[in-house]
Amino acid sequence: MFKKLVLLISVVLTLALSGGNTALGGSVEAQCSESLEEHLDTGALDTGSSDLEMPYEDAGDYQLVGLRFLNVDVPNHAIITSAWVQFTADNEKLTGEPVNLAIWGRLEPNPGTFTGTGAVSSAPKTSVYAKWSNIPAWASGDRGPDQQTSDISIVIDELVNQDGWAMGNALALLIGDDPDAPSNSNRSVVSTANTIILHVEYTSFFAHRPNPANGSMINDTWVSLSWLPGQTAASHDVYFSDNYSDVKDGTADVFQGNQTSTDLLAGFPGFPYPEGLIPGTTYYWRIDEIEADGTTKHTGSVWRFSIPPKTAYNPDPADGAGSVGPDDVTLTWTPGFKAKLHTIYLGTDFDVVDNASGGIPQGLKTYNPGPLESASVYYWRVDEFDPPNTYKGNVWSFTTPGAVGDPQPAYDATDIPMNVILSWTAADSAASHRLYFGTDKEMVRNANIGSSEDKGSKTLGDENYDPGLLEPETTYYWRVDEVDGQSNVSKGPVWIFTTGTSLLIDDFEGYTDDDTAGEAIWQTWIDGYGIADNGAQVGYLLPPYAEQTIVHGGLQSMPLLYINEAGVTNSEAVMSLTFPRDWTLAGVAELSIWFRGNSANAAEPLYAAISNSSGSPGIAAHDNPSAAQIGAWTNWTIPLQTFSDQGINLTDVDKIAIGLGSEAGVTAGGTGTIYVDDIRLSQP
Questions:
Q1: 3-state SS assignment for residue 283
Q2: Contacts by 342-347 with C-beta closer than 8 Å and gap 24+?
Q3: In sequence order, what DSSP letters do the residues of 571-627 get, joined into one string?
Q4: Residues 601, 607, 613, 615, CA torsion sign
Q5: Concatenated DSSP letters for 44-92?
Q6: Which has the closest alpha carbon to 673: 584, 617, 598?
Q7: CB–CB of 300/225 below 8 Å?
Q8: Helices marked H in 414-502 — which ranges?
C-alpha cells in the first residue's frame, strides 16, 4: 500500500501544479445517435427513415420528431449562452410556407432510447420550448444558416440544470408543430449518421466533471477525487461523507476544509477515512466554489460513488421476476468486491435456501440449474468467497409460469398512489388465496393465519385487495399464498412497493370490453349519448372501447371525442366518485390530469369541473385556449384552491368532469379527439 500511496501522491501533485484553476467555459458539439418520427394519430414510430419531415409527412399526418445525442459534455448548473441544432436539407418537401416549429427538451437527466408506441409524445417535456419560425424554402443538400435552428439555449439550460444531470449524459430533443402558429407546409432533413449536430456554448461558475464520475462504482478501498473548477473560483470548500444529508446540508462534521487544489485523497492514514473506504457503502461529496472576495459562493451538486459490496449483487433474473423459464434458465450476478469463488444455493423453500451451507464453490459467475418446475416459486442465494472469509448473500426470488404472479403495483415500484388497490394473477392451481400485508418484510414473509399481517382469504376470481389509505413515502410488503382444491398451500414470494404523495382518481386500467358486466369505460365516464346539448363521446363504438396505443402510463387511456357543431357548444364526460371523495386527505392540494390532443383537432378550450352533490360545479380552464391541439402528453396541474374559491366543499366531492367547449368561458366550435390518462390528487 505504501508504494501505491507514493505513486498516487506524485500524480496528484503533478495535476495540481499543472494549473487546476483553469477557467472552463466553452462550446461542445454532439452528434445525433438516434432520430425518429412518431405519427401522432397512432403513436407509431418510424425509426428507419433516411429523412425527417417536420411537422408532418403528408397533409394531416402530423409527426413529432425525436433526436437523441450522446456524451453531451456540458456541466450541471452551466449557464447556456447559445445553442442550436444543425441539419442538412433533404431532397424533397423543401418549399411552401409558412413552417413554424417548436423544440422541447426531453426532461430526463440521462434519457435512454425512444422505445414503444407513443415514446416521443409521452416523454416528459421541458416547461419551456424554443420557436423556430418562418423557416425559408430550401434546396437539396443545403447545410447553412437556414438549416440551423433558432437559439434553443432556454431548452438546453433547463435540461442541464435539472437534478441528476452530469457531464457526458445523453440529451434528447422533441420537434413538432408550433402550437401557437401552426404550419401550412413542412421541411425535410437528412437523418443519416453524422448529419445532425447539437452545438452548445456555455459558461460555468460551478465545480464540474467529477472524477470518479457521478454514480461510479470504485473497486478499491481508497479514492482520489478531482474536479474541474468553476470559471471564477479562487478556492474550494470540500464536503465528503457517507451521509447524504450531511453533505447536502454542508454540516461541520463532513467539511474537509477550504483548499486551492482541485483534488482530495481519501481512504489512507492522514486523510478522510484513514482506515479505508468500506465495501458496500455509498459516499457523497460536494464542492462549493469560493470567489476571490472570500464570500461569494457557488454551491455545488452532491456527487456520489460506491464501493461494491462483499456480497453478490445485480441478480438476473431480477429479484421478484415472474414467468422465468422453466427451461434454459441461466442465473447470473455481479460478483462481490474481490470475490474469488461463488457458491450457489437454489430451491423452492425460502428458509431452506436461507439456511443452506456446505455448497461447492465455483469460479464461474453463472449457474445453469437445469429444467425447473412450472408454477413454482424459486429462491436462490450466492455466497462469495474472498479468502479467508465467506460472505453470505441475500436470498432472491423468481417464479416460473403458472405460479402466482403479475403483482400490481409491480415489484419494487415507487411513487405508488396512497389509495392503491393491489391485484395479482392467480396460480394455475389456485382455488382460493390468502393475503398478508405490512411494513416489515420478515414479518410478512413469516406471517401465518391469525398474525397481524394476515388480511384474510380471497376467493378465486377476486384477485385484488384494498389496504385502505396508506402512508406517504412508505415501503410496504405483501404476499399471496395459493390454496388448491385439496387445501394445499403454496407460499408466495414477498412483493414490495413504495408509496408516493398522491391519490389516484383514475388511471383507466380497470376498464374492460364487458359492457354486460358494466365494465366499459363509457359506463363510468358518462358522455353526451342521448343528451342534446352535450357532444361528447367516451371510448370507441366497437371494442376495444378504451385507447390501448396512445397512452401516458399503463396500458389504457380514455379517448374523448368532442363534437361542438350544429348548435352544440359543449362536450363533457362526467364520473361519479366513490373514493376519494375527501380531497383534503393526506395534504393533497393539486389536481393532476395528463392529456394529449392533436394539431388536426379544432381549437377548443379544455376544462375540468368538480361538483358536490348539490350546487354549481367549480370550473378550471386550461390557460391555452387551443389545448385540444397540443400533440404531446401534457401534465395539467390545477390548484384545488381554484375550486374551493368557487364554493366547492373539497371534503365531499361528488363528481369530476372533463370537457371541451363553452363551459371554459370561451366559445369556439368544431370537432376532434383528445386522450386523458392518470388523473391524480397530489401534494404540492
A1: strand
A2: 342/312, 342/382, 342/383, 342/384, 342/385, 343/382, 343/383, 343/385, 343/390, 344/380, 344/381, 344/382, 345/380, 345/381, 345/382, 345/383, 346/378, 346/379, 346/380, 346/381, 347/378, 347/379, 347/380
A3: EEEEEE-SS---TTGGG--EEEEEEE--TTS----EEEEEE-SSSPPEEEE-S-TTG
A4: negative
A5: -EE-S-SEEEESBSSTT-BEEEEEEEEEE---TT-EEEEEEEE--B-SS
A6: 598
A7: no
A8: 441-446
Q: How many CB atoms lie within 10 A of CB 329?
A: 18
Count helices and strands (H / E) in the chain. Answer: 6, 46
Residue 484 near residue 429, CB atoms below 8 Å = yes
Q: Which amino acid is at 249?
A: D
Q: Other C-beta atoms within 10 Å of 681: how many?
A: 27
Which residues are bridge partners to 289 per DSSP? 236, 298
Report the half-sphere exposure of 270 (CA within 13 A, side-chain side): 3
Residue 17 burial (CB count, 10 A) = 9
Record the pTM: 0.76
Cα gap 580→578, rounded to integer Å: 6
Q: Whose CA is closest to 579, among 421, 415, 345, 398?
A: 421
Q: For residue range 400-441, what is the model confidence (pLDDT) as tens digits?
A: 999 999 999 999 999 999 999 999 999 999 999 999 999 999
pLDDT digits (tens, 9 = 90+) for 361-408: 999 999 999 999 999 999 999 999 999 999 999 999 999 999 999 999
Q: Is the dihedral of CA 415, 419, 425, 431 positive or negative?
A: positive
- Cα gap 328→166, rounded to integer Å: 40
Extended beta strands in 186-340, E state: 187-190, 197-203, 208-211, 216-217, 223-228, 235-241, 255-259, 263-266, 282-290, 297-298, 302-306, 313-316, 331-334
Interatomic CA distance for residues 74 and 37, integer angstroms: 26
Which residues contact residue 81 at a Cβ distance below 8 angstroms, ignoring those fewer than 6 apart? 25, 153, 201, 202, 203
- Best CA proximity match to 276, nearest among 41, 1, 86: 1
Query: Which cell numbers hold the place of 104?
Result: 422541447
Using a 10 angstrom Cβ sphere, with 0-12 exposed, 13-18 middle and 19 or more buried, the burial of residue 79 is middle
* Dist CA 452 CA 443 (whole Å): 9
Burial 393-412 (b: 16+ CB within 10 A, else e): bebbbbbbebbbbebbbebe
